[in-house]
Design a protein that fits this description.
mainly alpha; Double Clp-N motif; globular; disordered C terminus
Amino acid sequence: MFERFTGEARAVVQGAVEHAEADQAPRVEPAQLLLALLDREASRCSFALAALGLDAGRKESVRRALADTRRRAGLSRADSDALAGLGIDVSEIVARVEEAHGVGAMSGECRPGRGRRPFTKDAKDVLARALRVAVSHGDRHISDEHLLLALTAGPGVPAEILRDHGVTHKAVTRVLYGGGAQAQAG
């Protein structure tokens, strides 16, 4: 599949690996793919994000939301709400764990190691979904905009955080494939 990735998409994948290394994460997750997409400049992905109002300040808000989720061991807001319905306060658990073991103890950090970091099943699903998105739009190659569309189309924390910032699958599709600035309504 990687032979179908453009240089831009390959740069996103490499950027995700670099974010995982910087985070000392044992594996590359969809959140790191999103972080790498936020780093993009002068690409169709960066154009779509800018058209949807995701400027530098709002990108920083996305980064903070991802970091906050990581502190909660990757639990989405929906996960936290479901646990709250069972009487489990995730914030309280995080506070207690961090009090005993230090800030970030639930983030899944590992000791920096050598070798390549594998992609989680969820991250691989994003890459496979990007291929399906590209094909559905008649594109022969996967580029960074297909990765963005794949993240917004899937379940999980990146889609939830992007949605909170006005970046939905429908809106990105309209910006990239028709409708331009009116996509903000979706």
